C-alpha cells in the first residue's frame, strides 16, 4: 500500500532518461557549465528517475554522473545536486554515517533523523547501514554518545514504538502522572521515565498524554523538559515531542532556525529540503506559513543566492503568500 505523499517533487512526465542524460552531458561538456540545465533537470525529476538518468548517463558516455557533477560544480550548489542524486533509501544512512565519523559527533543530525522517522523507516535505515557500511548503526552510535542521550537514541533505534491501535485512557492518565512525578514533583529528574514513555508509546497515545499532562500540571510537556533536562538529551526529548505532535511542524521549525539570524546552516537546509521533497514538503510549507508569518519560499529567497537559491526554490515548489 503506497503512502499518500505530500511532496513537492513527483514523477516527471513525459520522462525520457536518455534525453535527460544527453542534456546533462551537453551542459557539462567542454569549458564552462550550463548550471541552469543541470538544476532544472535534477530538481524536477523524482529520485527514482534521477537514478535512471545516472544509469543512462553511464550507458551512453561511460561516465559517472555524480563524479561529473562533483568536478563541474562547486560549493553549496554542488552539495545540493549531489544530495539529490543519492538514492533515497541510502540518504538517511549516509547522513548518519557522516554524523558519527571522525572527530566529534553531529548530535543535531542524530536527533533530527531518529526523532522524526517512523519505526519502519528506522528499521530500513539500520538494514541499509549494515549492508552499505558493514557495521551496526547501534554500535557506532553507542560508541560515540553517552548518558541518557545515548539511552534514548538506543530506544529509538529499536523501532519498537507501540502501534496506533485505540487509546487506553487509564494508561494515558497513568503515564501523565508518572511524567509529572518524574519531573515537576521531584527534586532532580527521573530521566529514565521520560525516555521509556516518550520512546515507546504510540503516537496517538502520547498526544493524549500531553493533553492530560497539561491538565494535571498546568504546563506543556515541552516546558517541563526545558526546565528539567539540558544539553543533547533536552534537544532530543523536545524533538521527539514535537514529532509526536506534528512531523511537518517540526521540520518547518528546523528549516526556520537553519536560516534565522546571521549565517545559514546550509547542511540542515539541504538535508531537510532533499529528504522531505517527496514526502511532506507541502505540509511543511503550510506549517511554516502558519507558524512564522512568512512563506518558506520567501525565507529561502532572502537567505540564499545564485544557482543554489534557484535549485532550492524549485524544490520548494511555490510561494504560499
UniProtKB/TrEMBL annotation:
A single GO molecular-function term is: phosphatidylserine binding
Q: Which domain of life is it from?
A: Eukaryota
List cellular component terms (GO). calcium channel complex; cytoplasm; nucleus; plasma membrane; vesicle membrane
A GO BP entry: negative regulation of coagulation
Q: Identify the InterPro entries for this entry.
A: Annexin, Annexin_repeat, Annexin_repeat_CS, Annexin_sf, ANX5
- The signal peptide annotation in the UniProt record is none
Keywords, A to Z?
Annexin, Calcium, Calcium/phospholipid-binding, Repeat
Q: What is known of its domains?
A: A pair of annexin repeats may form one binding site for calcium and phospholipid.
Q: Which family does it belong to?
A: Belongs to the annexin family.
User: Would you tell me the protein name for this molecule?
Assistant: Annexin
Q: Which organism is it from?
A: Ficedula albicollis
Which gene underlies this protein? ANXA5
Amino acid at each position: 500500500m503506497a503512502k499518500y505523499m505530500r511532496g513537492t517533487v513527483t514523477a516527471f512526465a513525459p520522462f525520457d532518461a536518455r534525453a535527460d542524460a544527453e542534456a546533462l552531458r551537453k551542459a557539462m561538456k567542454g569549458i564552462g557549465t550550463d548550471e541552469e540545465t543541470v538544476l532544472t533537470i535534477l530538481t524536477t525529476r523524482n529520485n527514482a528517475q534521477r537514478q535512471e538518468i545516472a544509469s543512462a548517463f553511464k550507458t551512453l558516455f561511460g561516465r559517472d554522473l555524480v563524479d561529473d557533477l562533483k568536478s563541474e560544480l562547486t560549493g553549496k550548489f554542488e552539495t545540493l545536486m549531489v544530495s539529490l542524486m543519492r538514492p533515497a533509501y541510502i540518504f538517511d544512512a549516509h547522513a548518519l554515517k557522516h554524523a558519527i565519523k571522525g572527530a566529534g559527533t553531529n548530535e543535531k543530525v542524530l536527533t533530527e533523523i531518529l526523532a522524526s522517522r517512523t519505526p519502519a523507516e528506522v528499521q530500513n535505515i539500520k538494514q541499509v547501514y549494515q549492508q552499505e557500511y558493514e557495521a551496526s548503526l547501534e554500535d557506532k552510535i553507542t560508541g560515540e554518545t553517552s548518558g541518557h542521550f545515548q539511552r534514548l537514541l538506543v530506544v529509538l533505534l529499536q523501532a519498537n514504538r507501540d502501534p496506533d491501535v485505540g487509546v487506553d485512557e487509564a494508561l494515558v492518565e497513568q503515564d501523565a502522572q508518572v511524567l509529572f512525578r518524574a519531573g515537576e514533583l521531584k527534586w532532580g529528574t527521573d530521566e529514565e521515565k521520560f525516555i521509556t514513555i516518550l520512546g515507546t508509546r504510540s503516537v496517538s497515545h502520547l498526544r493524549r498524554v500531553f493533553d492530560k499532562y497539561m491538565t494535571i500540571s498546568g504546563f506543556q510537556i515541552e516546558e517541563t523538559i526545558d526546565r528539567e533536562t539540558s544539553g543533547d538529551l533536552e534537544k532530543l526529548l523536545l524533538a521527539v515531542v514535537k514529532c509526536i505532535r506534528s512531523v511537518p511542524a517540526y521540520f518547518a521549525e528546523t528549516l526556520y532556525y537553519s536560516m534565522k539570524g546571521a549565517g545559514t546552516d546550509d547542511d540542515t537546509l539541504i538535508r531537510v529540503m532533499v529528504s522531505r521533497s517527496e514526502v511532506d514538503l507541502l505540509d511543511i510549507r503550510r506549517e511554516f506559513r502558519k507558524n512564522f508569518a512568512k512563506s518558506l519560499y520567501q525565507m529561502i529567497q532572502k537567505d540564499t543566492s545564485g544557482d543554489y537559491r534557484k535549485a532550492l526554490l524549485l524544490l520548494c515548489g511555490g510561494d504560499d503568500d
